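Lab meeting, action items carried over

1. Structure of the two-component assembly. Owner: GW. Status: complete.
Input record:
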Amino acid sequence: MKTKNVPALEMKNITKKFGDFIANDKLNLIVQKGEVHALLGENGAGKTTLMNILYGLYTPTSGDIFINGVKTIISSPKIAIDNRIGMVHQHFMLVKPFTVTENIILGKEKKNKFGKLLVKESKKDIIALSEKYSLFVNPDEKIANITVGMQQRVEILKALYRGADILILDEPTAVLTPQEIKELGIILKNLTNEGKSIIFISHKLKEITQFADKCTIIRRGKLIDTINVNTITEQELASKMVGRNVNFIVEKKEANPKEPILKIKDLVVKDNLGLIAVNKLSLEVKAGEILGIAGIDGNGQSELVEAIAGLRNIESGKVFVNNIDLTNKTPSDIFKNKVSHIPEDRQKFGLVLDFSVKEDFILQTHSNSPFAKKGFLNGNEINKFANELVEKFDVRPTDIEKNARDLSGGNQQKVIIAREVTHDPQLLIAVQPTRGLDVGAIEFVHKSLIKQRDKGKAVLLLSLELDEVINISDRLAVIFEGEIVGIVDAKNSDVNKIGFMMSGGESKNEKK
Amino acid sequence: MKKNSKIIKFFTESNKAFTLISILLGFFIGGLILWLSGFNPFRAYQIIINGIFSKPTYISYTIIRATPLILTGLSVAFAFRTGLFNIGAEGQFIIGSAAALAGYYINLPAILLIPVVIFIAIFFSGLWGAIAGLLKSKYGIHEVISTIMLNWIALYLQNYFTSIKGFAKPNSEATKYIYDNAKITFLDNWKHTDQGIEWLKNHQLLKDILRTPANFGIFIAILCAILVWVILNKTTLGYKLRAVGFNKEAARYGGINIEKYTIISMFISGSLAGLAGGLHVMGVSHNITILSAMEGYGFDGIAVALIGNNAAFGTIWAGFLFGALKYGGTKIQPFMGAPSEIISIMIGTIVFFISMPNIIKISLNKILKKNKKRGDNAQ
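Predicted assembly:
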């Protein structure tokens, strides 16, 4: 038996350099047996790098790893697994057409001496395992047919089946519904009761205070602190993470709305399957206000925005910006009429990932003066502009020659916001602008939107996070099945009532 | 220590080093096959190298061979950089060479006629390439399919025209020769005059070079490489084309007309391959003949682009390498009886290793790690 004071895992003075960039700078991490240890940090702080080192995906530049007090060199995931370390990645690594059982035993199959797969026996093992930790799954169901929450259980079982004692969960809640997050909490309890140690990577403070015992905070690759979670508030955690005080409540002045900028009349738009997604929708956004659209995913939000931005055909109805008819105009015409768009999917639409940051800054304006003259790009002007934006919007790293692909999610978003805001639009459309971002970056995005509003711009915000829409918007429109089912004043709104409207409750009553 | 790590970095991360290793591996495996077939590989390579460099005539032929390959390589590389896979360089080459026959139908002073013929070759082959671009952007037909088909259409179109009276020389499988004013071969007339022959007797080097159809083509090819580099990296057109190549959705979001720029890209790509064909007629063959099969300049261009890492200047070096091997390699047959097909095997091997970069990278990393461990243990 190991004594209790030998930690299950100790990472000592871990440093990892990528070229000149130091991703991890002498990091220490001690995880005890039966502990949920949260790893907290902003996007790009170095959490995932550290865990990839532990799982053998990266070799550290220097530093040592001790497992149960024994110095271990982990040079491949196989060695990590042999040392009873398991990892559940943010994006699941499952074979979709395979059953739960097949996925769990993949790579460690039970066979008889003729090489026949012992499916029944394996299934028994899995049922026993899932009962032990109350991780209930249907072993015969195909992965393609089960929910994301279930898939995550399969991933955890997969790690346990390989004998993991230390379980790394990389942002496990990012894909889960609130109900599933609660269930995950119970699963974590069961696992630690059985003596497993869990490393929980997250930048969601609420979950850390709920689930974790200890928390190690990393900022820009450096260790900030390791603390007992029960002695600290979310506020303190947040300021440790970003290195300054963070305001959870969005501060903003009273809105001062003026004339309508965006006018949408009876808009009809079809989705990719040819079904009507936006159904005779009418809406106005005024100068100097933020209009938020709340709704459950898939109620026509994406189609609405794409139609306004010229990326999707409008079947009928009209879109006016500043009284200019922009119905079915090209994206570049719409851009010229001072409409900027922070797209929902920043990697698919917002950025050319293989372009350098400076090239991405001029995605719409590369042919305009001063960036181009007679068809030739003006390198000096582009560099000057890019350096200005990088500094003004605090994009990290500050190297404008770096490919957008190499930036963290938060910094990619900063590049897009910097570009779109600098266009000085009359109408700014922001779709899910804070998805996947950490507290610091979210605050930045929110402030940027409010700043645009205060400058007298019209802002149209779409988000699936109800809290965000309510906090940022001045007026709030609820969308359901492609229609606006109600518009309320955001300040005095009732969350329950909005939730009811989002699920279609109100509209049916109104229509009758 | 620092120097050491720099070298390791060069070999594991740099594309150039990696290409170099692939080429050496190609030579090695080519040598191995020679050895297995009972030939002395060192002697074979000696013959090849002599066959490329030992006489001005040989060097001149190597350059002549490399010229069209550089251009078809640029054609494929250009399309590739903009997200398109142009398999049609072969057909565009054919169209370009057929269009260069304009040099038989128009007669102007050389200073005008040469640019006019080049323009005609570029224009028609560009259109030929643009057909594939149009099919892709209007009807979503993949350019690989359409360009392969267009290759065959181009081949039979050329054979058809070559067989029509008025185009063809009577009783032959070839067309009439283009006017002298349309030729870009160095001193093509003068070198056959009595005066020229007399003068060249006393100037061995020039005599050797002029014995071959040495021509201006290589300068035009290098100029095109510079042009391609400038277009891709320094112009708004290149910016748009690259944006479309990297991420169509983002390009559309940024207001770039994807359909238009797909067609433009295929036009430019096609015109580069067609220029290769045009220069070949103007500088080397001076006419076209009925082809029983495709000549392969366009297909070789795919390999050249690959070896050149789809970069404008890389393509020049790859074109020279390819041209040299193709020319020098034929000499192992008469001199030592070894099959010159070995050269194709060698080129195939180089392409094989380059298209599977991870094989070399992984094995290199393993070797380096082992060495490092040994070094650590020694300490």
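2. GW to write a short summary for the group page. Key points so far: Residues 149 and 177 of chain A are 8 Å apart (CA to CA). The radius of gyration of chain A is 25 Å.
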